[in-house]
Design a protein that fits this description.
The structure is a single chain. This protein is mainly alpha-helical and 241 residues long. 46% of the residues lie in helices and 9% in strands. The chain has a two-stranded antiparallel sheet. Strands 3-4 form a two-stranded antiparallel ribbon. A hairpin with a 5-residue loop joins β7 and β8. α6 runs antiparallel to α7. The chain is elongated.
Amino acid sequence: MSAHHPDATRMLDTRGYSGPTIHSTNPLHLLEKPVRDRITESYYWKEQCFALNAATICDKASQLTYIGGTYGQQKPTPFLCLLFKLLQLLPEKEIVLLYLRQKEFKYLTALAAFYVRLTFEGKEVYRVLEPLLGDFRRLRRRTREGGWRLSWVDAFVDDLLVKDRVCATGLRKLPSRMVLEDLGQLEVRVSPLGEEIDEIDQEEEEEEQGDGRSRDSDEDEVEEVDGNGYVYDGERSDRPD
């Protein structure tokens, strides 16, 4: 096993990179070059990410208070810097899943979910991330303008699954879930709201049937009025001359 280098200089060296790859590329290149440059030049990267390893990065992630990409004058967030550090460390899959499934630190969960989206294969991304669509813990999100927006773990994961850009990072296109289902690589996903949706549909059908019966009843009771203002129902009644 090759020695870990505390900074990213060696992995960013473009002169014949021969280290481990993700999706046939240098893992650090999964982030765009302008973003990589801003991360490695940032104070947080130099002061807080130096010499982190797969264990100590958990301590840093537990101190996060928001997610986000770059903001203001393209300043990278600590969240993005730690993602970059994970791409440098390339922890074992079992460790990443531990990050993801622990319940104490929600920002560590979000960080691991982002790493999974960038590095895992398509069918694994769906299998690993979809259970988090039922995680409703709140997250603070730093906007590009430098403001704040409320989000949730499930909303963030949904963005990772359906969008092509999240937190200043272009995402590799995922294969369609329907295609993977047709190929037998994924089970058909059952929504946790499925029973509630079925009940709502059933109630709407019953309401429509009730409205239909009411209209039929109203039509049966319609009384006709002739030109002289006499009311008759069914057969024409006798009218005065």
